[in-house]
Write a structure and sequence with these properties.
The complex is a heterodimer. Chain A is mainly alpha-helical. Chain A contains eleven helices and no strands. Chain B is globular and about 75 Å long. The chains are: A mainly alpha, B alpha/beta.
Chain lengths: 237, 415
């Protein structure tokens, strides 16, 4: 029974979550695109000479945060850069995507990227418990950060703490690569057949939480990933 | 609250959901950066006076009626329309001056003004809008409809101002001192109801030898204050029609920030230019069409950037250019320009009275003025002028609050 649940989580649920996420994002974006444009300009002066590049740079570098809360800015930059690196690191697990050497037992960053991201999430979560942020936070803010924290922690166990054992990685980068490659090629193979051992349950937990996150994403404020640039464009005219 | 009204409120809300509004309502990460941006919170640190808390009052309704999923609604603290919640909506609409300083803090640039606009329309639908503002807006519209009947009285009133204009600038014989209905004029000057808004501008334009005409209509747009787009358009439309009829090159808006923003940015394309009086004065100085005597303005002078012409209009350097022709003792406020603190009187608060809240919420402004050590506090917006005068009295700042146009008119050098 447990094996069957693990299979559902690691294979069919992944497809469902990804499809759900992509459709959800498309619907959300379409709803905004279909809405009427605002009847007048919302820009803030002074004018920017090149509003589009300026909006892109503004969304990526968050100059207003740097100016008004440098500590938060440092954590935000670390978090967002870390997430980009983690996406690359997950792609790099595939045998045909070699940023790190194919025979390396490590993910990109040797586990450090995930730890930095975890620390940043913990900072975002803890600051919400302090006033006045506590007063403006809603339960979804805490739960989303908690979910992200759990995903990052379980990821850390896989990619970093996994290497603490005397014999090196219990599960190697190649093991995970085989699993992801199977998913990518719709093999429907049970990853338990090739990846087994004490840490497998951590992988299942990580995948389950990531599935949840993908399913929640279109309905959450994480949608700012897609709207940060258009939003920044509005204030630049 | 009855079901019919709820339905009407949902309809009103949905009609206000532009692309921008949707993005603003769905993407706030409640990072809290905007908390420190609001003058009301900086003066009286209550969470309800933050941009994010005001927006949450509207966002929570949005979660209820425009988003799906029972769990998501619970987790986002969705609320239904109720009499109690409409009080919160009122707080969103009328504890905010629409200064948009918070936009310069927000990583996404969320415009509280747009969310405030939704709140104001909801209040209108529920018949809870401030009746003073509604009445003033209706009076402006009525004036537009009966203008032919009142033109004669207006002309007489304008004639009565001539003596005071001539005291500032002695015009050539035969020239109209306060001209009306001038076809093909370069400038249609739109003043406020009150001679203080006409006399200095008339003297300056006469000194520059401008071909100008005084508008029959007052610039102020109470439709914008009350948050009714239809009335805002109708009130501005009176002036647009007048400018078209006279084939005007440029409409010059007096020292009224909201009137400028509405005319410049909120009423679509027009066959004439729109500038502020401050820009016109700066242009005259640049072209050498007027000269100013610096000895007329002794003592330290500081300038308050009105949000609606500065942050919302980009008029930052022109007033400083004029002031540098008026005095050698100009001192900047800190912060200034885009980061300047709002005076606390915008968004209709001055027109509504609300003196207790205005004084409480603008303590930070009073402290900012005091720190300059200036004797003269100058600005270019009627709302700001009234609020700053009230702050001056309330906090005993001991400054003289002046209009930039008035200082200019008093310093005109007669050849």
């Amino acid at each position: 029974m447990v094996n069957q649940i693990f299979y559902v989580i690691t294979v069919p649920m992944v497809y469902l979550a990804v499809a759900w996420c992509l459709v959800g994002i498309a619907v959300k974006v379409a709803r905004v695109v279909k809405a009427p444009a605002h009847p007048f300009t919302l820009k803030v002066f002074p004018d920017k000479d090149h509003p589009v590049p300026s909006a892109v740079w503004g969304a990526l570098s968050m100059p207003t945060v740097r100016r008004h809360n440098p500590t938060l800015w440092v954590f935000l930059i670390l978090f967002h850069l870390g997430v980009v690196l983690l996406i690359l690191a997950h792609l790099d697990l595939m045998p045909w995507f070699n940023i790190y050497p194919a025979d390396s037992p490590n993910m990109i960053g040797n586990g450090a990227v995930g730890v930095v991201v975890t620390a940043a999430i913990l900072y975002f979560l803890l600051r919400r418990f302090a006033s006045p942020l506590r007063e403006i936070s809603v339960p979804a803010d805490y739960l989303l950060l908690f979910l992200l924290f759990c995903i990052a922690m379980s990821g850390d166990i896989i990619s970093w703490a996994n290497s603490w054992s005397e014999n090196g990685f219990v599960l190697t980068k190649q093991d995970f690569g085989g699993y992801l490659n199977g998913l990518f090629h719709f093999s429907w193979d049970d990853p338990a057949a090739t990846i087994d051992g004490g840490h497998y349950v951590v992988l299942v937990t990580h995948v389950f939480l990531a599935n949840l996150f993908l399913m929640v994403l279109p309905f959450s404020k994480i949608m700012h990933t897609f709207f940060a640039i258009p939003l920044n464009k509005l204030r630049r005219g | 609250m009855d079901a019919k009204l709820k339905k009407e409120l949902i309809q009103t809300f949905s009609e206000r959901l532009s692309q921008a509004a949707k993005m603003y309502l769905e993407n706030c990460s409640r990072c809290g950066l905007c908390i420190e941006a609001c003058h009301a919170y900086a003066s009286s640190p209550e969470t309800r006076y933050t941009a994010v808390a005001r927006a949450q009052n509207i966002r929570r309704i949005y979660e209820e009626y425009f988003k799906k999923g029972k769990i998501a609604k619970k987790l986002n603290e969705a609320v239904e329309f109720s009499d109690h919640w409409m009080e919160k909506v009122y707080e969103t609409a009328y504890t905010c001056t629409g200064c948009r300083r918070c936009m310069t803090y927000c990583p996404f640039g969320i415009d509280t003004g747009v969310i405030q606009g939704i709140a104001k329309m909801l209040l209108i639908t529920a018949d809870m809008e401030p009746k003073t503002l509604e009445m003033l807006a209706d009076m402006s519209i009525a004036k537009g409809k009966t203008i032919e009947k009142t033109k004669e009285n207006f002309a007489t009133a304008a004639k009565n101002l001539e003596k005071e204009v001539l005291e500032r600038w002695r015009s050539e014989g035969g020239e109209e001192v306060v001209p009306l209905d001038v076809q093909d004029a370069n400038v249609l000057y739109v003043a406020l109801a009150g001679k203080h808004s006409i006399i200095p501008a008339a003297a300056i334009m006469n000194a520059a030898g401008e071909k100008w005409s005084l508008s029959y209509f007052e610039a102020v747009n109470f439709g914008a204050f009350v948050g009714n787009p239809a009335k805002t358009k109708e009130i501005a439309g009176r002036i647009i029609d007048e400018a078209k009829r006279l084939n005007i090159k440029e409409v010059v808006i007096c020292e009224c920030g909201t009137a400028y923003r509405v005319m410049k940015h909120m009423t679509g394309e027009k066959p004439f230019g729109v500038i502020t009086l401050v820009e016109l004065i700066a242009r005259y100085l640049e072209q050498g069409r007027i000269k100013l005597d610096k000895s007329k303005l002794p003592g330290k002078v500081t300038y308050h950037d009105p949000c609606q012409i500065a942050r919302q209009g980009g008029i930052y350097e022109e007033p400083r250019y004029v002031l540098n022709h008026l005095t050698d003792h100009f001192v900047e406020m800190t912060p200034n320009r885009q980061a300047n603190w709002c005076c606390g009187g915008g968004g209709g608060l001055v027109a509504m009275g609300e003196k207790d809240f205005r004084m409480k919420s603008a303590k930070v402004k009073a402290e900012q003025v005091k720190a300059t050590g200036a004797e003269v506090l100058c600005t270019a917006c009627e709302n700001c002028h009234t609020q700053l005068s009230d702050l001056n009295e309330h906090y005993g700042l001991g400054v003289k609050v002046e209009y930039l146009s008035d200082l200019t008119a008093k310093a005109l050098v007669q050849d």
